[in-house]
Amino acid sequence: MKHYIQNEKVLHTIYRMHEEESSGKLESRVDFTSEDKFLQVAAIKIPNQKSFRPHQHITCKRETDMTQESWVIMRGRIDVVLYDEEGQIMGEEILREGDCMVTFYGGHSFKCMEENTLVYEFKTGPYFGREADKVFLDEEN
Predict the structure, then answer these.
(1) CB atoms within 10 A of CB 129
(2) Calpha distance 89→75 (Å, rounded)
(3) How many CB atoms are located within 10 Å of the residue 17 CB?
(4) Is residue 119 a contact partner of residue 96, using CB atoms and an 8 Å limit?
């Protein structure tokens, strides 16, 4: 797992499934996020025939004033540029099949690098429209 950190705060996390599995780090569960994050993300290696007890989650009030996002690359490649909270570039990564990226704070941009790339996106909601949700870091708005 790779973290992009500014002032001791994790802004972005990248989890590369193939690296974790080949290193033996993924034995059962790896949490990508700490318990205080609005978006909770984990990799869970499930043994054959393992089951989970039927359940549903209890309704309880949760409040957030921000959006946190996660992407899982299902197929293809994405070039992602990561930004800090002041809009400055922190780094650039190529995300491949099986990779997961989580943005807690700061910004990002994506560029698709292969035909038929498929990405699953997860983020906190509700969505109130572009004007209420994001500010662009380049000159084009």
Answers:
(1) 7
(2) 26
(3) 18
(4) no
Triad 22, 25, 30: Cα angle to 5°: 125
Angstrom distance (rounded) from CA 40 to CA 68? 10
Q: What angle do CA 74, 123, 67 make, to 5 degrees?
A: 140
* Residue 67 burial by Cβ neighbours in a 10 Å radius (0-12, 13-18, 19+): middle
- Paired tokens of 84: 């800090």
- In the predicted model, residues of the chain with pLDDT beneath 70 are 21-22, 24-26, 139-141
Question: In order of start, what are the domains of the chain with their CATH numbers?
Answer: 2-45+57-133 (2.60.120)
pLDDT computed for residue 36 by the predictor? 85
Cβ neighbors of 131 (< 8 A, separation 6 or more) are none
What digits encode the pLDDT tens for the residues 20-46?
766 766 677 888 888 888 888 888 888
pLDDT of residue 141: 47
